[in-house]
Design a protein that fits this description.
With 189 residues, the chain is mostly helical. Helices cover 73% and strands 0% of the residues. The chain has 8 helices and no strands. The longest helix is centred in the N-terminal third of the chain and has 30 residues. It is elongated, with a radius of gyration of 19 Å. The N and C termini lie far apart (52 Å).
């Protein structure tokens, strides 16, 4: 059975039940659930702050902006980001709960990409009214750095948890797609 799908076990290798202590290196169920909530909460915070930065501008300047012909309708972004933020949180949690060698470095890469993710929305949506096209180029630089940071995160997550690495691939794909939309907007607005 793959490591990601193995049940929590006691030191004897039997499934963890009742008051038995988890094996060394495996977190108990209570801390695991709390950890998952922390990672989901961090993703929700970044999503919420991004939503605040974009809310007034999606119906403002962005509504009349020149958009790439391959831009999806605005309603697609909410469900897509909800799925992606959830997958990101679960991936980070899988790494955190593993306590494996390299987990700290992997989670540091995750934190860096989460920060870049947080910076992109205000740069793209929020700064455009004040800076014009310069804001879109700044946002493009941020999203390129974000794509690199997510790639680094995938490369750190994969050896620790294949599932965690795979959970980030749709996110990386979406970031590259969003970068194409950002570049088109910077060139045409």
């Amino acid at each position: 059975m793959p490591r990601d799908q193995q049940p929590l076990t006691a030191g004897s290798g039997t499934p963890l039940q009742g008051n038995r202590k988890p094996a060394p290196g495996v977190r108990a169920l209570g801390p695991q659930l709390l950890g998952l909530l922390v990672f989901v909460g961090a993703s929700a915070l970044v999503a919420g702050l991004g939503g605040l930065a974009s809310a007034s501008n999606v119906d403002g300047w962005y509504a009349t902006a020149a958009k790439a012909p391959w831009s999806p309708p605005n309603w697609v972004f909410g469900p897509a980001w909800t799925f992606l933020y959830t997958a990101m949180a679960v991936a980070a949690w899988l790494i955190w709960r593993r306590r494996a060698e390299g987990s700290r470095r992997a989670l540091t890469a995750y934190a860096v990409q989460l920060l870049l993710n947080l910076l992109w929305t205000p740069a793209f949506f929020g700064l455009y009214p004040a800076l014009g096209t310069s804001a879109l180029w700044l946002a493009f630089g941020i999203i390129v750095a974000l794509a690199v940071a997510v790639t680094v995160t995938v490369l750190h997550f994969g050896p620790i948890s294949r599932i965690a690495g795979l959970l980030l691939l749709p996110y990386l794909t979406w970031i590259v797609f969003a970068a194409s939309l950002n570049l088109w907007a910077a060139l045409n607005n």
